[in-house]
Amino acid sequence: MLGITDLKPGTFFEFENAPHVVVASEHSKSGRAGAVMRTKIKNLTTGAIYDRTFKGNDQFPEADISRKKGQFLYSDETGATFMELDNFEQHQLDAAQVSDAKPYLKEGLELDLVLHDDTLLAVELPTKVDLEVVYTEPGFKGDTQSTVTKPAKLETGFEVNVPLFIKQGEKIRVNTQTGQYVERANN
Q1: Are 172 and 185 spatial neighbours (Cβ–Cβ below 8 Å)?
Q2: According to CATH, what is the number of the domain 4-55?
Q3: Which stretches in the chain have pLDDT values below 50?
């Protein structure tokens, strides 16, 4: 059983007969009142995200979640298709379930598949992914101030701010949790 102090971002638990994941949490204690945990949770079967406040004595069973290594295959207007690497079984997520990950999904990307009763509920991206810059304005010679950035469009259609020295056609590393440029990737 999980208590409210166990409800940290990324924790899977059963709530109202459905698997949920904690998106954000904040522990709060005020004066005479007991401790509470303010959370933003996502229902993994419906994809709904909502705010919940739990009291200090609330307890929850852990969700029966398994993780398997997988690979992104392709996406279309209905959603995205993923494959388990160990048995080549394919799973589909609809567009709403994969919306947070979509800016980082490129063909062949390896990631973790989150399954509940052999049904794909979500995907967990690696912390950093390498993506190619398909368009950016050229930098100006002599402008070497390190804090100056420019927008760059990546191969997935995602836009990120990059330093002026990044050129079109280069691969960069992007943090999937913050959506920010990290460094040049080794080509």
Answers
A1: yes
A2: 2.30.30.30
A3: none
